[in-house]
Specification:
The protein has helices spanning about 25-35, 40-45, 120-130, and strands at about 5, 10-15, 50-55, 55, 70-75, 90-95, 100. It is α+β, with helices and mostly antiparallel strands. It has 2 domains: about 5-75, Roll (Structural Genomics Hypothetical 15.5 Kd Protein In mrcA-pckA Intergenic Region, Chain A), CATH 3.10.290.10; about 80-153, Pseudouridine synthase (2-Layer Sandwich). The strands form 2 sheets. A 5-stranded antiparallel β-sheet has the order 1-2-5-3-4. The chain has a two-stranded antiparallel sheet with strand order 6-7.
Length: about 150
């Protein structure tokens, strides 16, 4: 059995379905890519037109894979998961060496996540606090204790 996964130019990867290939394109492609991409991420790439076969865009994640099918997938460059500080004004109610109390405006997302990588409270606090911001909870969730969603002040 040949390797179904070949690196093409740039970030393009070529996947060839072997004689045992079957099922939905998104599920099959995810299995070929391994842990590098989740099925939901592969599905988004397909819907965004990042997958082609025989020179045509394949935009249906439910397309049935058949032996001999060849797909090219354009994979984005990995993004740095570390949020960057941004000079976003904060309504600081109290601040000392250990604690900062902020009145968060409605509409501001607290932690960076899909669709909101910038403009978050975390980005503002990284800028404001610099290296003094605690790292508890990982790089995207640094030491922030809250009970607020995006639309709550």
């Amino acid at each position: 059995m040949s390797d179904p996964f070949k690196q093409a130019a740039g970030n393009m990867k070529v996947l060839t379905a072997d004689e045992h290939a079957e099922g939905r394109l998104d599920a099959w492609m995810t299995a070929q890519l391994g842990e590098e991409f989740s099925r939901s991420r592969v599905k988004v790439l397909i819907k965004e037109g990042q997958v082609t076969s025989k020179g045509s865009v394949v935009a249906d994640p439910q397309k049935k894979v058949r032996p001999g099918d060849i797909f090219e997938i354009n994979l984005p460059e990995p993004e740095d998961p570390t949020p960057k500080g941004e000079n976003i004004p904060l309504d600081i109610l109290y601040e000392d060496d250990d604690l900062i109390v902020i009145s968060k405006p409605s509409g501001m997302v607290v932690h960076p996540a899909a669709g909101n990588w910038t403009g978050t409270l975390v980005n503002a606090l990284i800028y404001h606090c610099g290296d003094s911001l605690s790292g508890i909870g990982g790089v995207r969730r640094p030491g922030i204790v809250h009970r607020l969603d995006k639309d709550t002040t």
